[in-house]
Amino acid sequence: MSCGEPHETDCSEVLDHLYEFLDHEMPDSDCTKFEVHFEECSPCLEKYGLEQAVKKLVKRCCGSDDVPADLRAKVMGRLDLIRSGQAVPDQDLPVSADRPAEG
Question: Domain Putative zinc-finger: where (predicted)?
């Protein structure tokens, strides 16, 4: 997605890192770049607003639910693969011995 207008920070970079921004998991300097981009780019601002609303809804509806251990293990396994730069398979990952299922 791109609005077609030139920006200092490209739309694709903003959208690729949107959840890092929403979760406050990026340096302040990057947050500032994103905020400037949202001021200039209404399609990205709209996407940001939608994702922010979804996060709030999920938190409100599911925030107190316990995450099943097998789901948590699968998500953590996929995150480990992503962080290591490996391809993420489409099928479920088995729980590995070095990352036991947690509750």
Answer: 11-44
Is 92 within a domain? Answer: yes
Residue 38 domain-assigned (yes or no): yes
Helices 28-40 and 42-62, packing angle to 10 deg: 120
Residues 55 and 15 in one domain: yes
State the total domains in the chain: 2
What's the pTM? 0.58
Q: Which domain holds residue 84?
A: 66-103
Residue 43's contacts (CB-CB under 8 Å, 6 or more residues apart) are: 1, 2, 3, 11
Question: How high is the mean pLDDT in each 10-residue block of the chain (103 residues)?
Answer: 77 91 92 93 93 88 79 85 74 52 46
